[in-house]
Write a structure and sequence with these properties.
Blueprint: E1 7-10, E2 33-36, H1 37-40, H2 44-55, E3 77-79, H3 87-91, H4 104-121, H5 135-164, H6 187-204, H7 221-236, H8 248-260, H9 272-276, E4 289-298, H10 300-305, E5 317-319, H11 321-326, H12 340-344, H13 352-357, E6 358-359, E7 364-365, E8 374-375, E9 399-400, E10 416-424, H14 425-440, H15 454-465, H16 475-489, H17 496-502, H18 506-509, E11 514-525, E12 544-556, H19 571-575
Antiparallel strand pairs: 1-2, 3-5, 4-10, 6-9, 7-8, 11-12
Length: 586
């Protein structure tokens, strides 16, 4: 780490303003010029850019691991490229030397940047700009930024503890000549630190982002509360609370969630489709979005995930049969392959979120060029079926639709806006429901008067999707239904990977094979008038009807042991400190 007492290294070649920190899906700040401490902390524009460099350390990409969604490390998806690093999760080939999703260094870098910002900005006055017309507005911005830096520091610590458990706390700005205390704090000590840091942030943060596009992606009071809600829920989950002694965290989760109930957030009226394919990307009026990153307009996500029969499509993210079957029927009943009616037409009358998440055989793709618009063909020898000899195409019989704009013309160079969500109100509702059900062992009580029961919270999420109320007779059945609700509502939002770990059910869930479907098509002569002759169109072409048969198949064996609930601390960090203990099993 460079000596911050002598100079601060920041980048100006990539950063144009804080308003654009969220406008790149993989923004890194290359060194271009060095500024002294004295200059950085006197210039409004440079302080703004410095804060942008902290934001750049937050997750802002769909490709969590070498181009793969993190969901491909779970029972929700498979990555078509078997040489991808994501497969190391599934084969058990993980190590402390080169873990594919380690973020130790980037999060501690973000923490050190945040500590530097806090230490230097708390006494900052922009004295030489005091006669400028923008001075009062700039000082108001600075107040908000102080809160944002504190929120970001808390967020980076959460990213660390969900991976590693207890970690060292670096509370002050230190340079390379001032070593930080390498001693691990316990998981729950860091949880308390995160909560306290969020409370500090709440003093400064604005209630909501502004109405300008440049305000998108700024942390607000809602973001700090949502982080507390998620952190407390993780702290009270089975992995981190095996004996139930930390149930006070369940109450803290519910209390902080209830504070969000009256802050203007809602899932009502927010269309699930436009939420993930927004077009313009403007979420200022979207009451489900609490904190997100606006990514650069592009088409790489679509190219990586369009079915292979479409121009430039690689079809890399393949939802599993396990995820497909998790989507209920439209009437709220469970899909069942043993039900003859279900099995004959497995994609009919499903939860509406199914159609916004999964591309299946028969999905209509209205790509930008009308000449190429057609239905997806995953059946044997279909245009989008896997090509075994070239290891191309879906391995499960499904492609990803969530986030995907299915109307792009790559030949014409079409691009679209994308957003990566860090916190949604729907998640807050589901977190609240889980906390209340676990705390009171009853989904239908609200003894503290927070404003809704666990069942009420889940039903809000389901109602927005067009689904009926959840049916569950008791807390145990409700827990099962709630976990499934999280799975379908938050699919491909990087929750399943962590949920299964914190529930401590990885050996039951991830240590199992994943499945897909093989589809055979049959062509049946059309005879609508029952005259015994095959119908023809106006040009004399024979008309055919299609029928499909489905057979489930095993796609891949998966390996998971309990010690994998925690990531290994990078071996170099452990070797460099006699006091930093490696996590068990690594």
């Amino acid at each position: 780490m460079r000596n911050f007492n002598n100079f601060i290294i920041i980048c100006i070649c990539c950063v144009v303003a804080l308003s654009s920190y969220s406008c790149s899906d993989n923004m890194e700040y290359d060194v271009d010029k060095a500024y002294t401490d004295e200059l950085v902390w006197t210039e409004y524009s440079l302080v703004k850019r410095y804060l942008a460099s902290i934001y750049s350390k937050t997750p802002g990409t769909f490709a969590s691991v070498e181009g793969a969604f993190l969901a491909a490390s779970t029972d929700d998806a498979e990555h078509a490229n078997l040489s991808s690093d994501i497969e190391r999760f599934n084969s058990g080939a993980l190590s402390a030397f080169n873990h594919p999703n380690s973020s130790w260094s980037v999060n501690y870098k973000g923490i050190r940047l945040a500590n530097s910002f806090i230490a230097n900005s708390d006494t900052l006055t922009f004295y030489k700009d005091r006669w400028n017309d923008s001075y009062d507005a700039n000082m108001e911005d600075l107040t908000w930024w102080r809160g944002e830096a504190r929120f970001l520091k808390a967020y980076f610590y959460f990213e660390l503890i969900k991976r590693y458990g207890g970690v060292p706390i670096v509370d002050e700005w230190v340079d390379e000549y001032t070593p930080a205390d390498p001693t691990k704090k316990s998981f729950h000590e860091v949880v308390e630190y995160i909560a306290a840091t969020c409370d500090e942030a709440l003093v400064y943060l604005r209630d909501n982002a502004g109405v300008a596009n440049s305000d998108m992606g700024h942390a607000t009071k809602g973001a700090a509360l949502a982080l507390k809600v998620r952190t407390f829920l993780y702290a009270a989950s089975a992995l981190n609370n095996p004996d139930g002694s930390y149930n006070r965290f369940l109450d803290s989760c519910a209390v902080n969630a209830s504070r969000l109930f009256n802050m203007g957030y809602s899932v009502d009226g927010v269309d699930y489709t436009s939420l993930f394919t927004p077009g313009s990307g403007l979420h200022l009026e979207n009451t489900d979005v609490i904190f997100d990153r606006k990514l650069a307009s592009a088409n790489s996500l679509e190219k990586n995930n369009y079915p292979i029969g479409f121009e430039a499509g690689k079809g890399l993210t393949n939802p599993t049969q396990e995820l497909v079957d998790a989507f209920e029927m439209a009437d709220g009943s469970v899909f069942d392959w043993n039900n003859v009616e279900h099995a004959a037409n497995p994609y009919a009358n499903r939860d509406p979120r199914f159609y916004e998440t999964i591309i299946y055989n028969g999905t209509q793709m209205d790509v930008g060029n009308a000449n190429f618009a057609r239905k997806v063909e995953v059946f044997k020898d279909g245009l989008d079926a896997p090509v075994q000899e070239f290891s191309m195409g879906t391995r499960t019989g499904y492609y990803l639709k969530k986030y995907i704009h299915t109307d792009l013309d790559f030949i014409a160079g079409n691009i679209k806006q994308h957003n990566w969500f860090l916190f949604r109100y729907a998640e807050v509702l589901l977190n609240y429901a889980e906390a209340m059900n676990e705390l009171y062992n009853d989904p239908d009580v609200d003894p503290e008067g927070y404003g809704m029961t666990a069942r009420d919270a889940v039903n809000q999420v389901r109602a927005r999707a067009g689904m009926p109320d959840v049916v569950a007779a008791d807390a145990n059945e409700f827990r099962t239904k709630l976990r499934n609700e999280r799975r379908v509502e938050l699919a491909f939002e990087n929750h399943r990977h962590w949920d299964v770990r914190r529930w401590n059910i990885g050996e039951q869930v991830f240590n199992q094979p994943i499945h897909g479907v093989d589809i055979e098509r049959s062509l049946i002569p059309r005879d609508e008038d029952n005259d015994g002759a095959q119908d023809e169109d106006a040009d004399g072409n024979l008309l055919w009807d299609e029928s499909f048969s489905y057979s489930l198949k095993q796609v891949e064996e998966r390996v998971f042991d309990n010690y994998m609930n925690r990531y290994p601390i990078p071996r170099g960090e452990v070797f460099g400190s006699f006091e930093l203990e490696q996590n068990p099993g690594w």
